[in-house]
Amino acid sequence: MIFRCTPSEKAALVAKARAAGLPNATLMREALGLVEARRRKPVPRVDPKLTFAIARVGGNLNQLSRWINGAVKSGHARQIDALKVVSQLVIIERQMAQIVAAHTGGGE
Question: For residues 60 and 57, what is the distance between their CA atoms, to the nearest angstrom?
Answer without folding.
Answer: 5
